[in-house]
Write a structure and sequence with these properties.
By secondary structure, the protein is an alpha+beta fold. It has two domains: 81 residues, Alpha-Beta Plaits (2-Layer Sandwich); 158 residues, no CATH class. 46% of the residues lie in helices and 12% in strands. The chain has a six-stranded mixed β-sheet. β2 and β3 form a beta hairpin. α3 crosses α5 and α4 crosses α5. The two termini are 44 Å apart. The C terminus is likely disordered.
Length: 268
């Protein structure tokens, strides 16, 4: 039998299903290590034979623990607790946390810049563009948020575009209150229709022309945002239009390879 197996759970907590359909039960001297401590799990796996119990729901998988000899688990836990009690471990943890914080801060700034480049609003609406970029970045970039900004499947430019469209879908349309038929592809169809409306709204702000903020879904959403620090939707007094700042002309990207389940998993 292989050193490590990945099994599926059954109704019996001590019976598991192997990929070949065989039903297996762990030896009496084995115990289940609950999920949640990656370091301990790695050490137990390295110590010898183990069974990872994984439950699959749709496209998502959930760990239901690691079965291994009880002695391996106890030895690994004792060694790890001793290591974690040292000053050197505490310093390393602090350094790792500081590095992650700096990396995250840099990513937020970079992502916000990409969002602003995608928006490329005209000078008249530049303040609104800055506000929307901050709102989208603040919502989409937190670690563990599960949003499109955290995925590595697409480039940061595509992440920025998808995050804006997703944010607008929830903030400037009635998507959250829609009752969508549970028919394959219908949710994607609705999202595409709303995305077209959102792109039309964005195009409106890429032209250096005035419009009534109260009648604009984007201006209204920005004005009611909790973090709104200035009336970004207000147009300045009439003056000679300034040249728009240079920005990349980003074409619409094809994200059709992401199906409904994937979109739900990374949705804003």
């Amino acid at each position: 039998m292989p050193k490590s197996l990945t099994l599926a759970p059954t109704a019996d907590p001590r019976v598991f299903l192997a990929p070949d359909g065989q039903r297996l039960s762990p030896p009496d001297d084995w115990a289940c290590l609950p999920p949640g401590d990656a370091g301990l799990t790695r050490r137990v796996k390295a110590a010898g034979e183990s069974w990872a119990v994984v439950e699959k729901r749709g496209r998502k998988t959930f760990s239901r623990g690691l079965w291994a000899p009880r002695a391996h688990i106890e030895q690994a836990r004792a060694a790890l607790e001793a290591e974690r009690a040292t000053e050197s471990y505490a310093r390393r943890r602090a350094a790792d946390a500081d590095r992650r914080e700096r990396t995250q801060a840099a990513y937020v700034v970079s992502f916000e810049q990409e969002v602003r480049a995608f928006l490329r609003f005209a000078p008249r609406w530049a303040a609104l563009g800055d506000q929307v970029a901050k709102l989208v970045a603040a919502h989409a970039t937190p670690v563990g948020s599960g949003t499109v900004a955290r995925t590595q499947r697409i480039s940061i430019e595509e992440r920025a575009e998808a995050a804006v469209i997703a944010w607008m879908r929830h903030q400037t349309t009635g998507y959250d209150d829609m009752r969508i038929e549970r028919v394959a592809g219908r949710r994607r169809e609705v999202r595409r229709e709303l995305a077209q409306l959102s792109r039309a709204v964005l195009d409106l702000h890429r032209r250096d022309l005035p419009h009534a903020p109260g009648a604009c879904s984007l201006c209204t959403a920005a004005a009611r945002a909790p973090s709104a620090s200035a009336p970004a939707a207000s147009a300045p007094a009439a003056s000679a239009p300034a040249a728009a700042p240079p920005a990349r002309d980003l074409p619409a990207r094809d994200l059709s390879f992401l199906d409904d389940a994937a979109l739900d998993a990374i949705d804003l």
